TrEMBL record:
Organism field: Acaryochloris marina (strain MBIC 11017)
Keywords: DNA recombination, DNA-binding, Transposable element, Transposition
Protein name: Mutator family transposase
Entry superkingdom: Bacteria
Region (Disordered): 53-94
One matching Pfam family: Transposase_mut
InterPro entries reported in the protein's UniProt record: Transposase_mutator
Amino acid sequence: MSRKKKAPNRVDELLDELIGENPQPEDILGESGLLKRLSKRLVERALAGELTHHLQQSSNDQSGDENSNGPRNSRNGYSKKTVQSEQGEMDLSIPRDRCGEFEPVLVPKGQRRIAGLDEKIIALYARGMTTRDIRAQLVELYGANISEALISDVINSVMEEVKDWRSRPLDEVYPIVYLDALYVNIKVNGQVSKRAVYVALAVTVEGNKELLGLWIGAAEREGAKFWLSVLTDLKNRGTQDILIACCDGLKGFPQAIESVYPQTQVQVCIVHLIRNSLRHVPWKESRAVAADLKPIYQAATLEESEAALDAFAHKWDETYPGISQIWIRHWDNVAPLFQYPMAIRKVIYTTNAIESLNRSLRKVIKTKAVFPNEESVYKLMFLAMRNISKRWTRPILNWKAALSHFAILFPTRFNY
């Protein structure tokens, strides 16, 4: 049985008529191509529709007002305006009204860019491109000849959003928070200074990842004293409890956490320990060393983990004596891992959330050899983070199993 032929769509018929039989790329996408001409006409028709609605509304208002003796508003020709769009420069005829009351919404008075172009500029900046690179890209792709100063203005408009984001209220409780730092070069008083950017990434009650904030330290090295101010900021913004805090082995870090969140269990980040362990291992042996580290943090009990560490030291201490010492030095903050059920432990050491986030952020910031100021760091990292977080659409792996165990282990602090 033959399938019924679908009735032709009127829009498709019109497009076929406009495109013709053998269209060339220039005919569709060129400077005077169909796409640009259609966009221009579409915008102009929409503006005409806006004015029609405005005049109808004005007429209705006058009809309902017995005291109104003024002249009826009406159309009053057009004014010319050149705007930047994703199709390049566009010369528009903007309809006017006789009373000068019409305020277009699609292309507001004083605006020289059609909505969409600003988003393109910000998206390119979020990938680490400079204003010069963005300008070249816009010229190449859209023929939009926008100055670097205007591009900077668009990017700078994000700063208010950054400030709101950095001061937004936070959840009252987070089951897990990862604390880490990245490093960037910033020009300060004419001198290039290497500064730590502090990052706090949480796992919410729903099992979703949430970046709580970014803070730029005053010193080159990551410091427990500055972490104290970061944690205080989290508390001031509404977070009253953190069940487990995962951090690196920075001296004084556990004490800083305890002073703000005395009930929080501090857990040295396993990913950091592995990374530090492999730092001085040649690539050809790194896989074997990493495989022998696994039994330490994947052991079923603390006793089995200690035995695995002894076995590792016996095998590798002669070649790499520093690795076992890293684990022994931080053992007091590794051992608590084994008091948790396997479901929670898997979330802690397999989520690798902070490492994944940092890797994505490093890809962006490495395009900037030196940032001109702190504000530029916040803007770029905020926009990059916003892009990254779009991928965080599902709860982390094994979360459902871990959730019930959190409720059992922390009955008075976790009622979800």
